[in-house]
Amino acid sequence: MREVPLLGPYQQDDLLAWGQGVSRTAAQFLSNVYSLADRLPDRPTVLNLAASRYEFLVGFAAAMIRRQVTLLPHSRVPHVLREMVRDYPDSYVYTDHETPSGMSELVPVLSRQSSASECCPPDIPVIPLDQVVAIAFTSGTTGKPVPNRKTWAALISVAQATGARLGIKDREQITVVATVPHQHMFGLEASVMLPIVHGLAMHEGRPLFPADVASVLMEVPGRWLLVTTPIHLRACVAEGVSVPKRGLILSATAPLALEVARRAEQQFQSEVREIFGFAEAGSVAERRTVAGDWWRPLDGVRVEQEGTACVVRASYLPVPVSVPDRLSVSPNGEFIVHGRKADEVHVAGYRVSLGELNSKLLQVEGVQDGVFVMPDEQSGLVTRLMAFVVAPGKRSEEILRALRAHIDPAFLPRPLVCVPKLPRNETGKLPRETIEEMVRWWREEKGRE
Amino acid sequence: MEQTGFSAMERDLAELIVKTLKLKIDPASIEPQAPLFGEGLGLDSIDALELSLAISQRYGYQLKSSDPDIKTIFSSLRALAHAVETHRTK
Question: Using CA atoms, how far apart are residues A399 and A379, in angstroms rounded to an integer?
C-alpha cells in the first residue's frame, strides 16, 4: 500500500503554527511529535481533547505514528466523553487542560511535556494511505453514537481537493484561522489537514467573539483563511466587523444565507466560499454563496441520485455513502440541497435525531410524555429546539436540569414548555401539522403575557 | 419585586440573558455568583456569542475573549455586570 508523508511541502524553518506570540516551525513540530510518540501508552485508541489546535495536531500525529486511532466524539459533554471511554476501554485521553471529572478513574490521561532542545531535523514520517487514523462519531437514532472510520487517504484526498478548489498554492503565505473545534469533522479537514497538506500555517486558538475574529485576522502572518460557520459569520456581520486585509472565508456545517454572505464579502473584502459535507463522507462539494445555489463536487467526488436517495462516491470511500439531506442532482453532477430528512435536525453545526432526543426526554424522572420540536422561523443567531413536556408537578427548570446531564447544551430546548397533555392522534403519533399548531398556540399565549 | 443582593446592572443583565437566550426561567432565580457557562445555566459558546451581541447593542461594549480575564467575565452574573459597568459606552 502506498504511503504519504505526514507533512506537506514545508521547509524546516517554515511556520507551521502561530498563536499567543509563539511561532512553531515545521522542524519544531516534528521534534515535538517524535518525543510525544515515544511516551504514548501502548493503547489502540485516543480521545484527543486538546484545546489548542497545535497541541491537538501534535497528539494526532504522534498517535498516527504509533498506529493509534483518534476518536472524535460528536459532543464534549462530560457524560458523552465518559460513555465513549466505556465503549473504548483501551483508550487513553490526551489533553492540554483540565480533564472532565470521572475520566482519569477510567483511562490514563496524558499531556505533552514541553521538550527542551531539538537537534538535527528529524525525517518526516510516512503514513500508509489505508491506515484508519480517526473515527468521527455521529449521533444515532437509538442514542448510541455511530462510528465513521477515516483513513489517511480520505483526509489527504479531501484536503488536496479542497485546496485545489480554493486556488491555494503550496507554501503560500497563508494562516488558517478557525472558529470551529478541530475535533469536529469539518474542523479537522479544513483547519488541520488543509494547512499541513499544503504547507500553510495554522492559528492555534479559536476566536469566538466578532472582535476576536477581527483582531486575530489582522495579527496573523500573511493572508488569512477563516474557517467558520454561518453562526459566527452572522455575528460578525451583525457587529459590523471590518477587516482591512484580504483573505478568504470558508463556511460549513449549515447553509449560509445569501444576505449574510453578501455582507460578509463586503465587510471582509474577501470571497465567501461554502463547503457541503457530513461526517460520514467528509467535505463533498463547494460553492461561492453569492454566485448561486449549485454545489460543485470536489475533484474525485461524485454525487448521484439513486432512486429517491442520493449517494456520494469517491475512491477513498470503501462504499457509497448516502446523503442525509434531500438533493436535486443535475446531469453534470452539480446539485442543489433542499433540506434535511424528516427526523434529523441541525443545531449549531451538529446533527441530531429528534427521536434520540425524545427518548432521552422520556427517561427523565416524572416525565410522562414529551416531544422535541424544530420551529420553522428563525430568531437570533441560531434556531433552537423547543420541547413540549407532560410532567405533572414538575417545573420546566427541574426537567432542564435533568436533561443537561444527558444532552449537548446546543440541543437543550428553548423553551421547554410544560403542557397538560400532547394532542397525539389515534395511532399515538404527533403529525407535523399538529406540532406546528402547538408552536403557534404557544407563541400566541406568549404574546398575551 | 426587589431582590436583595442584586445590583441594578445585575438585574438588567439577568433579564437580558433570559430574554436573549429564551431561557424561560425567572431572572431573579439566577444566582449572582454561580457560573453562567458549563455547569451553572448550562449555556454554550453560541449563547456567549448571542449574549455578546445583545450586550454590544445595549451597552456599546464589545466582548473579547482574548481579554485575559474572559473566564472571570463569564464566571458569574456578578462578574459580567462588573465588566459591563466598567466598559460600557452607552
Answer: 24
Q: Write out the three cell numbers for A234.
A: 452572522
- Count of A-B CB contacts under 8 Å: 70
Pair A396, A389: CB distance under 8 Å: yes
Percent helix, strand, coil in chain B (nearest 5)?
Answer: 50, 0, 45
- Domain-wise residue ranges, chain B: 8-87
User: Are residues B24 and A215, on separate chains, in Cβ contact within 8 Å?
Assistant: no
* Per-residue pLDDT at A315: 96
**Which DSSP string corresponds to A299-365?**
TTEEEEEETTEEEEEETT-SS-EE-SEEEEE-TTS-EEEEEE-TTEEEETTEEEEHHHHHHHHHTST
pLDDT value at residue A141: 56
Q: Residues of A with CB below 8 A from B48's CB?
A: 208-209
Superfamily of domain A3-340: ANL, N-terminal domain (3.40.50.12780)
Indicate the fold that domain B8-87 takes in CATH. Answer: 1.10.1200
- Tell me what pLDDT residue B2 has: 46
ipTM for the predicted complex: 0.86
Say if A3-340 and A344-448 have the same CATH topology: no
Distance from CA of B70 to the nearest CA of A (A): 11
Averaged in consecutive runs of 10 residues, what is the pLDDT profile of chain A (449 residues)?
A: 93 93 92 94 97 96 98 83 92 89 89 70 90 89 80 98 97 95 94 98 94 94 94 90 93 84 95 94 96 95 90 96 89 86 75 80 83 78 86 88 85 88 72 81 74
Q: Pick from A310, A251, A308, A244: which is nearest to A281 by CA?
A: A310
Measured between CB atoms, which of B42, B49, B66 is closest to A409? B42
Per-domain boundaries in chain A: 3-340, 344-448
Contact B65 A207 (CB under 8 A): yes
Task: Inspect the interface and report whether the beta carbons of A381 and B25 lie closer than 8 Å.
Answer: no
Q: Name the helix (H) or strand (E) containing B47.
A: helix B45-59
CATH of domain A344-448: 3.30.300.30
Predicted local confidence at residue A131, as pLDDT:
98
Residues in A whose CB is inside 8 Å of some CB of B read 207-212, 215-216, 231-232, 235, 238-239, 348, 380-382, 384, 396-397, 400, 404, 408-410, 412, 414-417
pLDDT score, position B36: 81
